[in-house]
Structures are given as structure tokens and as C-alpha cells.
Write a structure and sequence with these properties.
- By secondary structure, this protein is mostly beta strands.
- It has a five-stranded mixed beta barrel with strand order 1-3-4-6-5.
- β5 and β6 form a beta hairpin.
- About 15% of the residues have low confidence.
Length: 146
């Protein structure tokens, strides 16, 4: 059996770091994921999906992402049943994030693309920092090893 969700979307609000009674960090937030088609009026539509992240992943998200940030989520879909304030039985669907990554441009501006995983304290890689002197020319050789 397989339960895998991979999403790219925008945060709809700033994520807020909370802790369980046993001091486990957790954050719950929503992302807007554009649908691949437009309505008859030409309007783009989006789905709003609830994401839950735990421990270092939650801390990473709350430190580096804010409302409007593009984010890539790799996780699994979970369901849970609960009773609302009026006594009605409800089912919640949410994606539990196991890995998150930066996508798009840093801070939504015209900076260089960056990518990272949920390793706490990881410094994003700046791909624009290299130069042509880092490469060497490889001469063509007719004697290929395969």
C-alpha cells in the first residue's frame, strides 16, 4: 500500500509553532494549490489543503516560511475523526509533512532559486555563487569506456 502526497503551493498565513503537552513542536497551516485549469470565466482556482508538521520540520517551516511563501511538501494523507462543538461527528483530512523544500524565488522576489530540506539550521544553497573557473574542459576521446 502507498500513501504519498507531493504538493507545491503558497502558505495562506504565517505558520505558528506550538508544542504538545510533552513539548513536541508542531505546526498546522494551509497552503493554496492552484488547479491546472481555469473556470469558464477564466479565473484560476485553487484548493486549500491543511498541512501538519512535527518536530524539526515544524521548527524549520516556522523559521523560514511566511504567508505567501511558495513551499513544496512531501508527506502522507491522514484522516482523523472528531466531534465538533455542536456534537456533530466530523472527519478531517490533512497532509502530514515529512520533508519540505523551498521552491520558486527566495522571498517571492527576483532572487536566485534556492532549495533545502527540513534539516534544522541548514543554509540554503545559492546556485548563483559559482563561476566558470570552477569547471574544466574535458577533451573528447574516441576510446569510450562503454
Amino acid at each position: 500500500m502507498l500513501n504519498k502526497a507531493i504538493l507545491i503551493g503558497r502558505l495562506t498565513a504565517d505558520p505558528e509553532l506550538r508544542s504538545t503537552p510533552s513539548n513536541v513542536p508542531v505546526t498546522t497551516f494551509r497552503i493554496a494549490v492552484d488547479r491546472p485549469f481555469s473556470s469558464k470565466g477564466g479565473e484560476r482556482q485553487a484548493d486549500f489543503i491543511t498541512i501538519v508538521a512535527w518536530r524539526a520540520t515544524a521548527e524549520f517551516i516556522c523559521k523560514y516560511f511566511q504567508k505567501g511563501s511558495d513551499i513544496a511538501i512531501d508527506g502522507s494523507i491522514n484522516t482523523r475523526d472528531y466531534t465538533d462543538k455542536e456534537g456533530n461527528k466530523r472527519t478531517a483530512f490533512e497532509v502530514v509533512a515529512s520533508n519540505v523544500s523551498f521552491v520558486g524565488r527566495k522571498g517571492g522576489s527576483s532572487g536566485s532559486p534556492t532549495e533545502s530540506n527540513s534539516s534544522a539550521g541548514a543554509t540554503p544553497v545559492a546556485y548563483s555563487s559559482g563561476n566558470a573557473g570552477d569547471f574544466q574542459v574535458i577533451e573528447e576521446d574516441d576510446d569510450l569506456p562503454f
